[in-house]
């Protein structure tokens, strides 16, 4: 466009007639017309070059616009994928929070049940200790009585007393075995609770 400023378009188009000395209009000389024609042709070439340059810039801008539209479409697709991934991650996070809350509640219940079993075990141990002491005292009394059988009972009643003592001993042993079985069952239940709690903790850590 800078080259075009050197030319006056109106001067190139208009051919002003020349005036003579007496004020009469004269036809332009051939040389002047040739100069104007050359200037017109030069201006045409400049305009054509300007048009080519503008077309080239326009084509470049069109290509750049198409590239930007393609990138914008790709970015839009990526943005949608990111949003979908974000929704999935948020859903998984919410589920994990719910699972963690349920696990905490389950652990709390397991702790309460475990504490309850501990109390029951302590109670059974105490009862078993008392029964054992009672059994030992009764057994000791029986032994003392047997030592004095000859002085207390007649020989005819001795077999009956021995049988009664054996019956009492058998009853005490049965009671002790029952309590031991109950204590064993509670220990097994406590071990099951511990295994469940350990499995829940391992699942939570994973």
Automatic annotation (TrEMBL):
<dbReference type="Pfam" id="PF15233">
    <property type="entry name" value="SYCE1"/>
</dbReference>
<feature type="coiled-coil region">
    <location>
        <begin position="107"/>
        <end position="134"/>
    </location>
</feature>
<comment type="similarity">
    <text>Belongs to the SYCE family.</text>
</comment>
<dbReference type="InterPro" id="IPR026676">
    <property type="entry name" value="SYCE1"/>
</dbReference>
<dbReference type="GO" id="GO:0000795">
    <property type="term" value="C:synaptonemal complex"/>
</dbReference>
<feature type="coiled-coil region">
    <location>
        <begin position="30"/>
        <end position="71"/>
    </location>
</feature>
<keyword id="KW-0175">Coiled coil</keyword>
<dbReference type="GO" id="GO:0007130">
    <property type="term" value="P:synaptonemal complex assembly"/>
</dbReference>
<keyword id="KW-0469">Meiosis</keyword>
<protein>
    <submittedName>
        <fullName>Synaptonemal complex central element protein 1 isoform X3</fullName>
    </submittedName>
</protein>
<feature type="coiled-coil region">
    <location>
        <begin position="173"/>
        <end position="203"/>
    </location>
</feature>
